[in-house]
């Protein structure tokens, strides 16, 4: 296929995207303030960040639509500043705002883009039909895009970015405003593209989306990278899980809390007894700690009626690292897990 003979990484680093020290100012606003990131070939990098963090600016620079003030970026082995034309031919872009031609039908939009990408007529037609089908637009294919709903336009926009089977695909908040069914279609299609060898840089404010699709996450805020890693890595950084234990006899709760607190178990910081709930909460970082705490209590003769664990959600992680909220209310978000 086209993609393979382009040798996306230039055979050097295994990264389809490499960004170093990227800076972009708009007047006094530092949209990007020295961003470094890599996207490994064939993977999805999730770029998370609150409004105004710099996500769209990053995508625009990587698409050669905006020039950085400083720093460098390579995409599929091409330099954004020195090889913009080659670079543009290897990427697909779905912007935060749909960019379809409203006067043309869905099918005409896709066909036209296929032709602009130098696909032969027959292939442009068949690729257009294939993508219309995949995004449930076959019935609406002949209607002008003007008459499409917001979700249909977004789907058409996504289909357009996939026409040329790009080696690297940028999706800037691709599912904002989509209903759950459409969102699932977009996710399926994105996964299919990755299975076929594409690399995806996905910006999103939906933690569920990041969790489902991205193998690595980079969190940016005010133009700077403030955290990066796998989903579980970020969760662990924010403080691991909370173990919940309910004594069979509520009167034993204080004694249980003392036993854990004074146990000297490796890495067990504290135990909090919440009498209103008849529950003991113990922050843990590993399964070994979980086993150790439960083992200790049972050795000391405490009878336990319930055990559960609560993992912070990615939402909580995000709020914690962007500094907007840290606490997890133990009584509002219990995820029971039998152990
Ligand atoms: N063309 C522009 N002119 C002036 N300021 C801009 C321009 N584009 C972006 N900015 C500013 O740069 C900062 C980063 O904007 P950007 O659009 O990259 O954020 P974002 O992370 O995509 O936000 P959102 O989640 O709202 O889409 C913001 O403060 C924004 O106001
Ligand atoms: Mg944006």
Automatic annotation (TrEMBL):
GO terms for molecular function: ABC-type xenobiotic transporter activity; ATP binding; ATP hydrolysis activity. Residues 17-247 form the ABC transporter domain. Its EC number is 7.6.2.2. It is found in: Cell membrane. Pfam families: ABC_tran. The keyword Acetylation does not apply. InterPro entries: AAA+_ATPase, ABC_transporter-like_ATP-bd, ABC_transporter-like_CS, ABC_transporter_ATP-binding, DrrA, P-loop_NTPase. GO terms for biological process: daunorubicin transport; doxorubicin transport; response to antibiotic. It is a peripheral membrane protein. It is an enzyme of class 7 (translocase). The keyword Repeat does not apply. It comes from the Bacteria. Keywords: Antibiotic resistance, ATP-binding, Cell membrane, Membrane, Nucleotide-binding, Translocase, Transport. One of its GO terms (cellular component) is plasma membrane. Belongs to the ABC transporter superfamily. Drug exporter-1 (DrugE1) (TC 3.A.1.105) family. This is ABC-type xenobiotic transporter.
């Amino acid at each position: 296929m086209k993609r393979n003979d382009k040798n996306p990484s230039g055979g050097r680093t295994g990264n389809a995207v490499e960004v170093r020290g990227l800076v972009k100012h708009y007047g006094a606003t530092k949209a990007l303030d020295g961003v470094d990131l890599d996207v490994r070939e064939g993977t999805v990098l999730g770029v998370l960040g609150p409004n105004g963090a710099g996500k769209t600016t990053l995508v625009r620079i990587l698409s050669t639509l905006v020039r950085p003030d400083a720093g460098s970026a390579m995409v599929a082995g091409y330099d954004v500043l020195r090889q913009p034309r080659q670079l543009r031919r290897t990427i697909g872009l779905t912007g935060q705002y749909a960019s379809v031609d409203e006067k043309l039908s869905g099918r005409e939009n896709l066909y036209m883009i296929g032709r602009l990408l130098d696909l032969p007529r027959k292939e442009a037609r068949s690729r257009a039909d294939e993508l219309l089908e995949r995004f449930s637009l076959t019935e609406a294919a002949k209607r002008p895009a003007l008459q499409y709903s917001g979700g249909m336009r977004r789907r058409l926009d996504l289909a357009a970015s996939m026409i040329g089977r790009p080696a690297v695909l940028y999706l800037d908040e691709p599912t904002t405003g989509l209903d759950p069914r459409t969102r699932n279609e977009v996710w399926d299609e994105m996964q299919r593209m990755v299975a076929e060898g594409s690399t995806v840089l996905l910006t999103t404010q939906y933690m569920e989306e990041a969790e489902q699709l991205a193998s690595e996450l980079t969190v940016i805020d005010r133009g700077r990278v403030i955290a990066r890693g796998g989903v579980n890595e970020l969760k662990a950084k924010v403080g691991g899980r909370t173990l919940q234990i309910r004594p069979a006899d509520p009167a034993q709760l204080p004694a249980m809390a003392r036993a854990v607190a004074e146990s000297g178990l490796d890495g067990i910081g504290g135990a909090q007894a919440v009498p209103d709930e008849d529950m003991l909460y113990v922050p843990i970082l590993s399964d070994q700690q979980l086993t150790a705490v439960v083992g200790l209590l049972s050795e000391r003769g405490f009878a336990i009626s319930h055990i559960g664990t609560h993992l912070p959600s990615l939402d909580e992680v995000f709020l914690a690292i962007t500094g907007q909220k840290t606490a997890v209310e133990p009584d509002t978000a219990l995820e029971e897990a039998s152990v």
